[in-house]
């Protein structure tokens, strides 16, 4: 299974929904980068993704985007194959 990295904050409801969706698709470990605990990582996230909001999800080297992007990918049937390609 591909590695999942999620830029997040401790109190973000969309981050929690993204985590639940990923776990429901068999993801056992999500590497969370908490940008509210590590402010320097916010700049890293914005540079890497071009976005300011959380969550920002990476599956392997693929930037999926935020929760809406993740759930849209799942509805189209693209999430599971992306998770399984390694």
Per DSSP, the total helix count is: 4
Count of strand segments: 4
Label the CATH architecture.
3-Layer(aba) Sandwich
- Indicate the CATH class: Alpha Beta
Structurally, the number of domains stands at: 1
**CATH topology (fold) name:** Glutaredoxin
Helices and strands: which structural class?
alpha+beta
Radius of gyration: 12 Å
Q: In one word, what is the shape?
A: globular
How would you describe this structure to a colleague?
- There is one protein chain.
- The chain is of the alpha+beta class and 86 residues long.
- Helix content is 44%, strand content 21%.
- It has one domain: Glutaredoxin.
- The protein is built from four helices and four strands.
- The protein has a four-stranded mixed β-sheet, with helices on both faces.
- The longest helix has 12 residues, at 13-24.
- The termini are close together.
- Residues 4-64 form the Glutaredoxin domain.
Briefly summarize what is shown.
This protein is α+β, with helices and mostly antiparallel strands and 86 residues long.
Features of this protein?
86 residues, alpha+beta, Glutaredoxin, four-stranded mixed sheet, 4 strands, 44% helix, globular, Thioredoxin-like_sf, disulfide bond, glutathione disulfide oxidoreductase activity, redox-active center
List the helices and strands and how they pair.
Blueprint: E1 4-8, H1 13-24, E2 30-34, H2 39-49, E3 56-59, E4 62-65, H3 67-75, H4 79-84
Parallel strand pairs: 1-2
Antiparallel strand pairs: 1-3, 3-4
InterPro entries: GLR_AS (IPR011767), Glutaredoxin (IPR002109), Glutaredoxin_subgr (IPR014025), GRX_bact (IPR011900), Thioredoxin-like_sf (IPR036249)
Function: Has a glutathione-disulfide oxidoreductase activity in the presence of NADPH and glutathione reductase. Reduces low molecular weight disulfides and proteins.
GO molecular function: glutathione disulfide oxidoreductase activity
């Amino acid at each position: 299974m591909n590695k999942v990295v999620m830029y997040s904050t401790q109190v973000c409801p969309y981050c929690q929904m993204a985590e639940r969706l990923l776990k429901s698709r068999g993801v056992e470990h999500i590497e969370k980068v908490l940008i509210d605990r590590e402010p320097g990582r916010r700049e890293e996230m914005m540079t890497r993704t071009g976005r300011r909001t959380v969550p920002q999800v990476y599956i392997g080297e693929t930037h999926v985007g935020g929760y809406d992007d993740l759930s849209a990918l799942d509805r189209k049937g693209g999430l599971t194959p992306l998770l399984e390609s390694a």
